[in-house]
UniProtKB/TrEMBL annotation:
Residues 232-253 are annotated as: Disordered. It comes from Pandoraea eparura. Residues 6-74 form the HTH gntR-type domain. This is GntR family transcriptional regulator. GO terms for molecular function: DNA binding; DNA-binding transcription factor activity.
Length: 253
């Protein structure tokens, strides 16, 4: 019986973990109530509590007495804590950047001089070298400089002040995706797409490339957030088709 009880708990752990990894339960979401979960999984409340304790030990969830069980960010599951959780969530940080930086890139495309394009090109190549060398801190600094330069080109002082005033928070959100070692050069390639659109002075493409980059960077950090249908999708597809192709959900407003 003892062996059977452990098997039931292990099965529950595997099912809930799979749902978390497939974003059925996305980062930051509260799991269904223990009563509902126990009924869905056809296990006892005691076995479910043991399964949830195991998932908490694995860093998958956080059990908050009296409030519920919440899914941790992938950064926490990777053992890399989000240091600013008491100020702003990681998901909110990426959504803020998505809103501000996509708009900024659209404006910057029409304001960038050849000299600015050359500066951004040098920055992108320097970041690539840092990533190849495994120098995450330098890569994050160059990443921040790239984004801030584009915001500066947009000429919106309020947006620039927001990002400068949140330098450490923004830089940390840029550093986290680099811990996915097999995808470490993804940021470089996405910056190249943004740069190419800026070079062509194509505002729509620059904004879409920036938004796509932030969505994908967020996903590498374990954050999946919905894109309102009023906004252009980062792939350039209509929102519903974009959701089907990329797995990024849209919200009909």
């Amino acid at each position: 019986m003892k062996h059977s009880a452990h098997a039931v708990t292990d099965a529950a752990v595997a099912i809930i973990r799979e749902r978390i990894e497939r974003q059925v339960y996305p980062a930051g979401a509260m799991l269904p109530s223990q009563r509902q979960l126990a009924e869905e999984l056809t296990i006892s409340r005691a076995s479910l509590r043991e399964a949830l304790s195991t998932l908490e030990a694995l860093g998958m969830v956080a059990i908050r007495p009296g409030k519920g069980v919440y899914v941790n960010d992938a950064s926490a599951r990777l053992g890399v804590a989000w240091r600013f959780a008491d100020q702003i969530s990681l998901a909110d940080t990426y959504q803020l950047r998505y809103a501000l930086e996509g708009f900024s890139a659209r404006l910057a495309a029409h304001a960038a001089s050849n000299g600015e394009i050359e500066w951004l090109t040098d920055n992108v190549e320097a970041m690539k070298a840092a990533l190849i060398d495994g120098d995450v801190d330098t890569a994050a600094q160059l990443d921040f400089a790239f984004h801030l330069r584009i915001v500066g080109l947009a000429g919106n002082g309020a947006i620039a002040d927001i990002l400068r005033g949140s330098t450490e928070i923004v830089m940390e959100s840029q550093r986290l995706p680099f811990y996915q070692r097999e995808l470490v050069l993804s940021t470089y390639h996405e910056h190249l797409e943004i740069l190419d659109a800026l070079r062509r002075r194509d505002g729509a493409a620059a904004g879409a490339a920036m938004e796509r980059h932030i969505v994908l960077a967020a996903q590498r950090a374990g954050i999946h957030f919905p894109i309102p249908s009023a906004y252009p999708s980062p792939s350039g597809l209509p929102p519903r088709e974009n959701a089907e192709r990329t797995g990024v959900p849209h919200v009909q407003l």
